[in-house]
Specification:
4-stranded antiparallel β-sheet; elongated; 5-stranded antiparallel β-sheet
Length: about 525
């Protein structure tokens, strides 16, 4: 193999590699000897087919395989001999005039990782904002669960339903005096004024009392989802079974026991632990942002354009996806285009900080152990069905790139924790609102893409620049603000302890919808969903 360097400019390298026909033929001969014992041909005993006939039968495929393996081995040798650290997969191009039996000339182009001076971890100063959990927060969380579960205080039988009250009703719908499919339901919760039922339904129940039976008349909207009901006049025979105070959830031991818990104190204990975890996640988010800002301010070096382009493409693709779900996609896309260069700058910063954190981790012996990696693989495998989990595990173990992508988020966490331990940290107690406001104030900061060792550069998190806020930008940026390398990290929204209420709430929300209910409301805009996730 002969190698000639044709480009050495910044982080770009290019080489011309010449592989001799003698090397390729030697590989073909070696493969012929390997497969000859298995070749079967009429007139010859098994394993006794002459090598020249084996070559004649399989020569073309053997030559292709030999050429490919020669090129792969040559590139690996090129990288090792020149002590290169490729940023991405090298570009390899075989000379168009190549013919078997002649030398092969291969052009190799790649970008290398920059040489980063050993970053200092001294002098980092951070403020840790912590928020305590108040009784009011716990009570509010318990109240939300009770409201979702329909655990409301019941009015006296003489109470007349008013706007905001929640009724428990049975109803039977009829068209031309005949019941219709989907028109009957029992024990349905209906809050007057919520707009969850078709127009005219809720308003006619104002003033009813427990035990009342009433027939109301309505007309289904012309654009109603069920074609056989759209525009039709109907009557509903309604029985009022209870009237509940929609603003006053019922919180007592009986309610907690209905969720499978020992009592109200146990429910509050679980909720307090959950809120504490949420606060801890917010605290870490704030500290991490400040840490990354300090690192960015003190380090500046060139980054591989190919990595920046890959990062930018992922950011842009995510922003386009978010924009497509906006109320005015065309306007959102236009605003994105106006700030395209800002997003490219974001990609540069993310890649630079990612390489820096990787360098810090390697320089200080930060590693992900085999035990931790096995746990990551098994956790990721749970998202697949039982029949596919083993295939996924094998895939990750056999594909270094897939393993690197899975490892990167945990590696990032461990590097950040290492830097937290080295930093001079001062503590300040604040309210949750103040902590969230401090994080919101940093929303326009440029965040990194963190690379672990052998990172596969699978980038799918966008961030937003210090510029006019666009709706899709906010959604893309806030969705995983502090999880630049991970696909499913829960840093901004930390993992919550498993609790009994969750199943009950999910079951309640999955209840079948009767025909009288209006069509589902339009999905919330991405920016609103992102704000909740943040």
């Amino acid at each position: 193999m002969q190698t000639v360097e044709t480009l050495n400019e910044g982080l770009k390298r290019a080489y011309t590699v010449t592989i001799t026909s003698k090397d390729i033929d030697a590989r073909v001969d070696k493969e012929v000897q390997a497969i000859a014992p298995q070749v079967r041909m009429p007139g010859f005993r098994p394993g006794k087919v002459p090598a020249n006939l084996v070559r004649k039968m399989h020569g073309e495929s053997l030559q292709r395989d030999a050429l490919n393996s020669s090129i792969q081995d040559s590139i690996q040798k090129l990288i090792a001999d020149n002590k290169l650290r490729p940023a991405m997969q090298p570009s390899v191009e075989l000379d168009e005039t190549f013919e078997f039996g002649k030398d092969a000339e291969v052009k190799v182009e790649l970008e290398v990782l920059p040489e980063i001076a050993a970053p200092s971890t001294d002098g980092i100063k951070l403020e840790r904002l912590t928020a305590e959990v108040s009784d009011a927060q716990v009570d509010e969380a318990a109240g939300r669960i009770a409201t979702q579960q329909g655990a409301l205080e019941e009015y006296a039988a003489s109470h007349k339903a008013k706007d905001g009250d929640t009724l428990t009703i049975d109803f039977l719908g009829k068209i031309d005096g005949e019941p219709f499919e989907g028109g009957a339901a029992e024990d349905i919760k209906l809050k007057i004024g919520s707009g969850q039922f078709i127009p005219g339904f809720e308003e006619q129940l104002t003033g009813v009392k427990k035990g009342d039976e009433k027939t109301i008349e309505i007309t289904f909207p012309e654009d109603y989802g069920a074609e056989h009901l759209a525009g039709k006049a109907a009557t509903f025979d309604i029985t009022v079974k209870a009237i509940l105070n929609g603003d006053k959830p019922k919180l007592d031991d009986d309610f907690a026991k209905s969720l499978g818990l020992e009592g109200l104190d146990k429910l509050k204990e679980l909720l307090k632990g959950q809120i504490e975890q949420e606060h801890n996640g917010l605290t870490r988010t704030y500290m991490k942002r400040k840490l990354l800002d300090q690192l960015a301010a003190s380090h500046d070096f060139d980054v591989p354009p190919s990595m920046v382009e890959a990062e930018f493409n992922q950011i842009w693709a995510q922003l386009q996806h978010e924009a497509s779900h906006e109320e005015d996609p065309e306007s959102a896309l236009k605003e994105m285009e106006a700030e395209k260069e800002d997003y490219r700058a974001i990609a540069v910063r993310r890649v630079r900080l990612g390489l820096l954190l990787s360098e810090i981790g390697q320089a200080n012996g930060v590693v992900v152990s085999d035990q931790e990696m096995n746990r990551l693989v098994m956790q990721a495998a749970q998202q697949y069905g039982p029949q596919d989990r083993e295939r996924f595990v094998q895939y990750v173990r056999q594909d270094p790139m897939a393993a690197a992508q899975l490892r990167a988020p945990l590696y990032e966490d461990k590097v950040v924790d290492f830097l937290f331990d080295k930093a001079e940290v001062t503590d300040r107690t604040v309210s949750r609102e103040e902590l969230e406001a401090a994080i919101e104030a940093d929303d326009s900061d440029l965040k990194p893409h963190v690379h672990g060792p052998d990172c596969g550069h699978d980038h799918d998190h966008a961030e937003k620049p210090k510029a006019k806020k666009a709706a899709p930008k906010k959604a893309a940026a806030e969705k995983a603000e502090e999880a630049p390398a991970a696909k499913d990290k829960a840093e901004a929204a930390p993992a919550k302890p498993k609790k009994a209420p969750a199943k009950k709430v999910a079951a309640a929300e999955a209840e079948a919808e009767p025909a009288a209910k209006k069509a589902p409301a339009k999905k919330a805009a991405p920016k609103k969903a992102a704000a909740k996730a943040e």
